[in-house]
Write a structure and sequence with these properties.
The chain is mainly β. Helices cover 0% and strands 58% of the residues. The protein contains no helices and eleven strands. The strands form two sheets. Strands 2, 4, 5, 6, 9, 10 and 11 form a seven-stranded mixed sheet that branches. Strand 9 and strand 10 form a beta hairpin. The protein is elongated. 29% of the residues are buried.
Length: 123
Amino acid sequence: QVQLVESGGGFVQPGGSLRLSCTASIESGSIFSINVMGWFRQTPGKERERVAVISSGGGSKTADSVKGRFTISRDNAKNTVYLQMDNLKPEDTAVYYCYCDGRAIGGPWRESWGQGTQVTVSS
């Protein structure tokens, strides 16, 4: 019903920057209202971590570990969420997953996940 496609991951040196993008594609013929969009990340052997989320109205929350360095933004007209990552650190290395939730009219609440994009921070 909803597909999330991420882009922008890559290999960067400590102190560098990347911008992740994620676009939600809604199945044709569906009327689906997206509420929250955001980013999670996961490293092998560790729990999935919520990095940042943003509501349809623009309110956002960012994890303490990335505050001051990462900024989440959203373009509702494009169904796209962005994560600007500055001053990247080696501990930011992870697979970053795009997230959204919402529902179709008359349908159940759903959560959707992207396939993930690798971010590697290393010298």
